[in-house]
């Protein structure tokens, strides 16, 4: 099976604001029809990178190649790229249908084509029953779908999403994660989402990039990053991780209390060198006695009930 075609190439892109280097030499290949996530804490450079992809910022260095053409200095309205804002930015005085058709009308497309494309995207996003409603008559999830439909109806090569689920409550956010993933696969357009929410990236993304201080730390599938993080920051940032400091000892770590923890060793370390064992909570089980390998004696000090999780 051949490798998926690269749609977007970010080639050694940097962005300076005065003396601050917000994005520092990032290179990424984003594939056609891929759901890609830019993930990291506040100030990591993910939003600045997204704004450069949209055309709202110009790189200080590097190239942004879309279909092989450098668009780094192309105005936003001349790029086949759409941006869906966190606020959705719907026109409150317009119906759902009018909101969705607005961009096509500004392009002065034939009325029949506008009607056909709007009808199709309303059906795809399951908004047909709400076509005549105003935004104030919609739920948060419905507003989000209107904003998405308005972006998709223009058939961009690339859709950028800036924290699109941030305004939704937790339960609705979970449902919309699956909805966004379904829609992306159905329409076959490359999505690039910016988020600080690790769960969103793990659920929705085909691949994801973890950024910190303007630099790329790791780019891979969610499973690969979760199971094989490149460093301690990534391990701690993606999901929950327990760290046990100690000394390297063969295929594991000799903890400071004398217990040896064995597992997959991701680095070449000399025996006795400082090392840290990283253990996911779901890998931990409770046993009555610590008399076999990879068991640590301890005392349960508190319990917090969270359904299936402790």
CATH architectural name of the largest domain: 3-Layer(aba) Sandwich
Work out the strand percent.
25-35%
Summarize model confidence as the mean pLDDT: 89
Spatially, the strands of the biggest sheet line up as: 6-7-8-3-9-10
What count of helical segments does DSSP give? 8
Structural class, from secondary structure content?
Answer: alpha/beta
Subunit organisation of the chains? single chain
The amount of helix comes to 25-40%
Q: Could you describe the 3D structure shown?
A:
By secondary structure, this protein is α/β, with parallel strands linked by helices. The protein has 2 domains: 6-232, Rossmann fold, CATH 3.40.50.300; 241-310, no CATH class. Helices cover 27% and strands 27% of the residues. The strands form 3 sheets. The chain has a 6-stranded mixed sheet, with helices on both faces. A 4-stranded antiparallel sheet has the order 2-1-4-5, with helices on one face. A 4-stranded antiparallel sheet has the order 13-12-11-14. A hairpin with a 2-residue loop joins strand 9 (207-212) and strand 10 (215-220). Helix 2 packs parallel to helix 4 (140-152). The model has no long low-confidence stretch (mean pLDDT 89).
